[in-house]
Write a structure and sequence with these properties.
Layout: E1 4-7, H1 9-18, E2 22-28, H2 33-45, E3 49-53, H3 55-61, E4 70-74, H4 82-91, E5 97-101, H5 107-119, E6 124-128, H6 137-142, E7 152-155, H7 158-167, E8 171-175, E9 181-182, E10 193-197, H8 206-211, E11 214-217, H9 229-247
Parallel strand pairs: 2-3, 5-6, 5-10, 6-7, 8-10, 8-11, 9-11
Antiparallel strand pairs: 1-4, 2-4
């Protein structure tokens, strides 16, 4: 049976709250009681097996992740369908607000983007199946548990997905340092919108760039002309939220 690991206090807590299927939770003998007590109480309520183990076992299970002495063994992450994300927006009577990631490879960037997507009310994130970070323990930890709430769809062809979104009336906005139009106050974010964030090093691919309805850029005043992908995504997501709240 396939399994996935969820590590860290926030990630495990949100996985429990969201109803994710968890098979077992390991708690390190040295873990701080005030961190683990609420998790143990909730796990017992749900009838989940809890095992106290040596911290080194957790270090080996999720190498390189700050697990805070808490690791859960969960059912594989359930990816959403694009239709589910659009339907979720419709059921809330809201214009779709989607994030499309064109080959974001760093799981820390994906986790940070999911966290901001949750904070700004995005309905979901769409990633390609190839050359893209998947939802892993690192992503879950970096997202502070937001990975349990923001639906992520994996698609075979991002360009075709953009065409489908356009047919649904979604305006596709790409972020590009060479764009002429600025991101702030341009009026493109109040309707149905899909925000495209490019690869950490190359930016958006040529085909994806050409398929965007409009390209926008962030103003730059310093010597460095680009931001980390997840930081840039966060700034633009908050501009979407600001524009929408102003319109209400």
């Amino acid at each position: 049976m396939e399994e996935e690991w969820i590590a860290g206090k926030h990630s495990v807590t949100e996985a429990l709250r969201s109803g994710r299927t968890i098979n077992k939770i390991w708690i390190a003998d040295t873990a701080q009681k005030h961190l683990t007590q609420p998790i143990i109480a909730e796990a017992k309520k749900q009838g989940i097996v809890i095992q106290h183990v040596d911290k080194r076992k957790l270090d080996q299970t999720v190498p390189g992740i700050q697990h805070q002495g808490v690791v859960a063994q969960a059912a594989p992450y359930a990816y959403a369908e694009v239709e589910d994300i659009l339907e979720a927006a419709k059921s809330k009577n809201e214009h779709p607000f989607l994030i499309l990631l064109d080959e974001i490879e760093d799981p820390h960037n994906l986790g940070s983007i999911l966290r901001t997507a949750d904070c700004t009310g995005a309905h979901g994130v769409i990633v390609p199946k190839r050359r893209s970070a998947a939802v892993t323990a690192t992503v879950s930890k970096t997202s502070a548990g937001a990975a349990e709430y923001v639906p992520v769809a994996r698609v075979s062809n991002l360009a075709q997905t953009i065409d489908r979104l356009k047919e649904e009336g979604v305006w596709v906005v790409g972020t590009d340092v060479t764009a002429r139009e600025g991101v702030f106050g341009n009026g493109v974010f109040t309707g149905p919108v899909a925000l495209v964030i490019g690869n950490e090093n190359k930016g958006m691919g040529r085909l994806i760039r050409e398929k965007c309805d409009v390209l926008v850029k962030l103003p730059m005043q310093g010597q460095i002309n680009s931001l980390n992908a997840s930081v840039a995504a966060g700034v633009v997501m908050y501009e979407v939220l600001r524009a929408r709240q102003e319109q209400e």
